[in-house]
Amino acid sequence: MYTINKTKLPGCVEIIPNIFDDHRGTSIKLYHSEIFKSLGIKDVLKEVLCVKSHKNVLRGLHYQKPPFCQAKLVSCLRGSIFDVVVDIRENSPTYGKFECFHIDSKKNNIVYVPVGFAHGYLVLEDDTIVLYNMSEIYSPEHEGGIRWDSLSIPWPIKNPILSDKDMNLPPFNDSIRISLNKRKR
Ligand SMILES: Cc1cn([C@H]2C[C@H](O)[C@@H](COP(=O)(O)OP(=O)(O)O[C@H]3O[C@@H](C)C(=O)[C@@H](O)[C@H]3O)O2)c(=O)[nH]c1=O
């Protein structure tokens, strides 16, 4: 029912759902609790966010600090994005490494961003709609971020549209680490 593509970052996977097509249209199963649980993905329904953006908007790189760390399932309902996850887990063998994905509403792929990762994306088409399912509620007091251009991420743009908050994020440095022992649950 799903094709799972592992990445070089342990725990971070790309999920391609089967598509059910007939003369009426298309059904896509974005979540299946039992199958996702077998992949280590559970409890990702504390907050669900649907975000519409213009082309060339870049959001991120964001994370939440303990005890409000978030895992996320990210998919695209319309349009497409260049999506990036950065491993900031303390003691991770892939600390500071990142993966890039092209999440596309035509491909229907879903990226699982585990707890302990920073996440961001560039919007590639106008009126793109991104859907996130999150394992923890939004907590502005626990927000953290990394400036988008401070790693060697191959963003396909030089001057993205950023929020004031994202423009002023600190560059990546090795004090940006998440200890998974300090999670709430
Ligand atoms: C992210 C978020 C925002 N909000 C509100 C706060 C604010 O008024 C408005 C916009 O917030 P922001 O500017 O922080 O939204 P944005 O820059 O889109 O932040 C998002 O970026 C991507 C890359 C992620 O991975 C998300 O988890 C989230 O951090 O939405 C929530 O209520 N819940 C949420 O989970």
Quick take:
The protein has 2 helices and 13 strands.
Q: What sort of overall outline do the alpha carbons produce when their principal axes are compared?
A: globular
> Secondary-structure element sequence?
EEEEHEEEEEEEEEH
- Calculate the mean pLDDT score and round it: 95
Give the C-level CATH assignment. Answer: Mainly Beta
Strand residue content: 35-45%
Ligand set: dtdp-4-keto-L-rhamnose
Helical residues, percent:
under 10%
Residue runs with pLDDT of under 50 for 5 or more positions: none
Write the CATH fold name. Jelly Rolls
- Rg over C-alpha atoms, rounded to the nearest angstrom: 16 Å
Tags for this model:
185 residues; mainly beta; Jelly Rolls; 6-stranded antiparallel sheet; 2 helices; 13 strands; globular; binds dtdp-4-keto-L-rhamnose; RmlC_Cupin_sf; dTDP-4-dehydrorhamnose 3,5-epimerase activity
Describe the protein in words.
The protein has 185 residues and is mainly beta. It has a single domain, classed as Jelly Rolls. The chain contains 2 helices and 13 strands; from the N terminus they run E-E-E-E-H-E-E-E-E-E-E-E-E-E-H. The protein has a 6-stranded antiparallel β-sheet, with no helix packed on it. Strand 3 and strand 4 form a beta hairpin. The protein is globular and about 55 Å long. The two termini are 30 Å apart. Bound molecules: dtdp-4-keto-L-rhamnose. Dtdp-4-keto-L-rhamnose binds next to strand 5, strand 6 and strand 11. Dtdp-4-keto-L-rhamnose (TDO) binds next to strand 5, strand 6 and strand 11. This is dTDP-4-dehydrorhamnose 3,5-epimerase. Catalyzes the epimerization of the C3' and C5'positions of dTDP-6-deoxy-D-xylo-4-hexulose, forming dTDP-6-deoxy-L-lyxo-4-hexulose. GO terms for molecular function: dTDP-4-dehydrorhamnose 3,5-epimerase activity.
